[in-house]
Design a protein that fits this description.
single chain; 4-stranded antiparallel β-sheet; 7-stranded mixed β-sheet; binds 4'-deoxy-4'-aminopyridoxal-5'-phosphate; 2 domains
């Protein structure tokens, strides 16, 4: 069945209150989904239900509200376990999101197990949050950071990757899908090759969570990172999935309440997984509401979502390609619904501002991927990223806006 007909787009849009407003006098067209996507009513309602009905600190309370809050919090852990198909629920650690998840692994696993001369491999497609934490730990441990080059269409060069792998490689950290270009990386093959070399693999799933099926057991990745706010959930939370045997041997990342078994001034013993990595009061309300984001995605199904969004992407690419002044950046066949582009002679910030005047929200700049922009010889792009609530009519508006900008700016 054609996804466009199978999905009731008006019914989906009705679930997103934020979409129904005017910006600069025009109906909002939200194409900044790769930065953060919008929240359905059930997620927003879960936040107020929590604060109005059972706000309490979790785990140590014996009163009714504390038990209710703890139950709801732990239900999300189970929901996320199923969402990524983890074998054990204690392999799901709540963090503030992908950035913190990667920093946790770099600080804990990296500090504990990297030695002088070891190597960490990242790709040229990475977000700064999957580069800088590795630079910090490599500096500290005198390890080397190696980079897999990216082709001119924005794809991972698998042969170059094979050549970089050696017995010195201890960690490979790559994204599942690129935020700037949308490229979906061949993560299963990347993981398999890294394991053959004896390295562990971290996958940055920020751009995959709302779009692609994630099965950490099938992928056999060692770590997988997700941000809630990029999968219709609230900001300020996310998960780190880690294989149990690795998390068990890793030292704590932060010290404090919750992550301990017993504290004396002579010696402290640490809590079991997952609490060993969850020091302090977590972001309870947002974790609770994240379960509703999972329910929202499951109610449509990742296959349907991908089919619908791919159709939007193909439509946008066709229309953008027909504008001679537009240069598409990132043209892999295998992408999530993200399209970056530049227009010769017009700065991306100006394009973003002029589109905003028409109520169209796109992202402009380097998208926290400066090395990737360098490899294309550009400073930044305009990025339109699509979601399940976007429509072809909205893409027509974008195209009309771009055509007017090109005409207006003609010398
Ligand atoms: N990696 C990728 C690929 C991303 O797109 C982002 C967010 N733009 C991040 C990491 C960082 O995620 P967060 O800001 O949610 O921690």
């Amino acid at each position: 069945m054609n996804a466009t007909t199978a999905i009731d787009i008006e019914k989906i849009r009705a679930q997103f209150p934020v979409l129904h407003q005017k910006v600069n006098g025009k109906p909002l067209i939200y194409f900044d989904n790769a930065a953060t996507n919008q929240k359905p009513k059930q997620v927003i309602d879960a936040l107020s239900k929590y604060y109005e009905g059972y706000n309490a600190n979790i785990h140590r309370g014996i009163h009714t509200l504390a038990e209710k809050a703890t139950k709801a919090f732990e239900e999300t852990r189970h929901a996320m376990q199923q969402f990524v198909n983890a074998k054990h629920v204690e392999e799901i650690i709540f963090t503030r999101g992908v950035t913190e998840s990667i920093n946790l692994v770099a600080s804990s696993y990296g500090r504990a197990f990297l030695k002088e001369g070891d190597e960490v491999i990242v790709s040229g497609l990475e977000h700064h949050s999957n580069i800088v934490p590795w630079q910090i730990v490599c500096d500290e441990k005198k390890a080397k950071l190696k980079v897999i080059p990216i082709s001119e269409i924005g794809e991972f060069n698998i042969d170059a990757y094979r050549k970089l792998l050696s017995t010195k490689t201890k960690i490979v950290a790559v994204n599942h899908a690129s935020n700037s270009l949308g490229t979906i990386n061949p993560v299963k093959e990347i993981i398999h090759l890294a394991h053959d070399a004896g390295a562990v693999v971290l996958i940055d799933g920020a751009q995959a969570a709302a779009h692609l099926e994630i099965d950490v057991q099938d992928l056999d990745c060692d770590f997988y990172c997700i941000s809630s706010h990029k999968m219709y959930g609230p900001t300020g939370t996310g998960i780190l999935y880690g294989k149990k045997h690795l998390l068990e041997k890793m030292p704590p990342y932060m010290g404090g309440g919750e992550m301990i078994k017993e504290v004396t001034f002579a010696k402290t013993t640490y809590n079991d997984l997952p609490y060993k990595f969850e020091a302090g009061t977590p972001n309870i309300a947002d974790v609770v509401a994240l379960k509703e984001a999972v329910n929202f995605i499951n109610s449509i199904g990742k296959d349907q979502i991908a089919e619908y969004e791919n159709d939007l992407l193909a439509y946008a690419v066709e229309k953008l390609s027909a504008i001679p002044a537009v240069r598409l950046i990132g043209t892999s066949k295998n992408k999530v619904a993200v399209q970056s582009f530049v227009i010769n002679g017009i700065h991306h910030f100006d394009i973003g501002q002029m589109l905003d005047a028409r109520g169209i929200a796109v992202r402009t700049g380097h998208h926290c991927t400066q090395p990737l922009m360098d490899s294309f010889g550009i400073e930044g792009t305009v990025r339109a990223s699509f979601s399940i609530y976007n429509t072809k009519e909205e893409i027509d508006e974008l195209i009309e806006g771009i055509k007017r900008i090109v005409n207006f700016m003609k010398p």
